[in-house]
Amino acid sequence: MLSLVPVAEKAENETTDTGTDPTTPARTGAGTGAGGDARAAVEAVWRIEAPRLIAGLTRLVRDLDLAEELAQDALVAALEQWPAEGVPRNPGAWLTTTAKRRAIDGIRRNERLAHRLRLLGHEQEIAQQLRSWEPEAADPKGIQDDLLRLVFTACHPVLGREARVALTLRLLGGLTTDEIARAFLVPEPTVAQRIVRAKRTIAAKRLPFEVPQGAELRERLASVLEVVYLVFNEGYSATAGEEWMRPALCEDALRLARVLTGLLPQEPEVHGLAALLELQASRSRARVDSAGAPVLLLDQDRSRWDGLLVRRGFAALARADERARARGERPGPYALQAAIAACHASAPTAQTTDWRAIARLYGALAASTGSPVVEVNRAVAVGMAEGPQAGLAVLDAVAGAPALRDYHLLPSVRGDLLARLGRADEARAEFERAAALTRNEAERALLRERVAGLGVRHPPGGTTMDA
Amino acid sequence: MRFMMLLRLDPATLPEAGPDEKLMTEMGELIADMTKAGVLVDTGGLRPLDESVRIRQTGGQQTVVDGPFAEAKEFIGGYCMLDVADQAEAKAWASRFLALHGPEWDIETEIRQVESPE
Asked: Do residues A287 and A467 lie in contact, with contact meaning Cβ atoms separated by under 8 Å?
């Protein structure tokens, strides 16, 4: 049976090599050969265990940076030992025990670690806690609580969006700085800097490592959900670069959303976000044609939508509604967006889409968020339900909003409604404007095509939020 | 990416008592862990092979065959659908699953990536 392993590995590597576009910033997977395979095995365990490990250590040493350093030490030890000795039966406990032992040794030998703990002002107490810590005996509830504290710390609103995103992917997504940099098409030192500064801010402001309660929870949760949503969106409609989508980021976000539903099962919007991402992700395969060009929602081959993700999305949406009802609350913004996505998902063909329901949901969303961007989307839905003139009326009512000044979807949608009204010259000017405003190459190509094809009637608005 | 983990068992070496309580508890814990980690899409054990039915088509002719299937040398006892970052991670979870089983178990898992044109 063992002889089968190298054969299988080889076949796998070959398909990966030929199947991957060399220009795609692919995630580092298993390398070739035994060394690379062993390393990949350690890294895989790391991805699984890192969040819990860092969360547990942060609670003990009360410093995120220090906790991460101790966790990294344990990873180095694993990389040294596991390839030769094999992955231990309980790798999480092994990593935690190793991190703990190194921390205690460090304190005993009065190294830099002891110095840093003195700076933090509670060296003795922490050393004592570390010694009495029994990772093997950790109860699941305690681990969940530690993870939640880590989530709320990484997504603390005092941190900038980019810092929150980088920190969350690194600490909770188990991504390396390099992976985050490649995903967001920025240089690695930039991401490294963001993380260092974020950790410094957390330390300097002495942010408590705890889960907010009551009214504060709601506010802080919004910040957490926003981070996950931003990560997904960057993967789903890349704001810059040549590719239309970066699927690895979508997968990271989806995973984070699923993790959150386990950590905060009573929060309706956590399920709402999960539902939204499952449903949007279900269309990934259909959103790009064989040449990599974007395919608009209404042009998509619905048989290529991922049924499993659709079902998961519907289930999450039902949970979101149920939790909201139990609290006597209206559906939140994520649940509403998920409900819109669900309208599309449940229409067997583009023609049978219930645009009136979608327009209503956008109306509710606009009321709860006050966002002019939502009104742009509502204009699309109204344009479909009641005709382009009605859509244009909704659009023109918000067109002057300062937030929409450089928003490329406004001229894009406007151009589409005008084209359907037969006002080709005005439509052309709007599409040109949208093409100049978008930072995504694939989308620009699509808009230029619309200019070239004016006179031909097209389904509208696929590049809106729910594409 | 999605992986299907198929659990293969050999009826000849299957512990007669089946999974004991400890194994069932630990399996439940691992499944909870996988769910919380956001990687478990679906999992289930399969009912005994004797209850299964096979439909075979050769030369355009279908034959329905009911159990028991005495000739089986191994059978699929369960499955687990994972949504993970790469094959290495699927292997890490699968290895954890196998490790729950004591030395009396002779068990193999086949890990197949689900086709996903991207």
From this structure: yes
Neighboring chain B residues of A20 at a CB cutoff of 8 Å: none
Written as one string, the DSSP assignment of A108-151 is: HTT-HHHHHHHHHT-HHHHHHHHHH--GGG--HHHHHHHHHHHH
Kindly identify which residue of chain B lies nearest to residue A311, measuring between CA atoms.
B41
For an interface test with B, the pick among A4, A15, A45, A254 (most B C-beta atoms closer than 10 Å) comes out as A45
| pLDDT tens-digit series, residues A261-281 | 999 999 999 999 999 999 999
Asked if B88 and A44 come within 8 Å (Cβ–Cβ), the reply is yes
pLDDT tens for A390-414 read 999 999 999 888 888 889 889 999 9
Residue A16 has what pLDDT?
34
Which residues of chain B are modeled with pLDDT < 70? 70-71, 117-118
| DSSP 8-state secondary structure symbol assigned to residue A222 | H
Give the per-residue pLDDT at A279. 97
pTM given for the model: 0.82
Structure tokens at A66: 């220090």
Task: Tell me the C-alpha distance between A159 and A201, whole Å.
Answer: 8
Angle at A454 between CA A453 and CA A457, to 5 degrees: 90
Token representation of residue A57 = 């250590």
Classify residue A434 as exposed, middle or buried by CB count within 10 Å of its CB (0-12, 13-18, 19+): buried
DSSP, collapsed to helix, strand or coil, labels residue A99 as helix
At A242 the pLDDT is: 61
d(CA A166, CA A245): 19
Burial environment of residue A244 by CB neighbours within 10 A (0 to 12, 13 to 18, 19 or more): buried
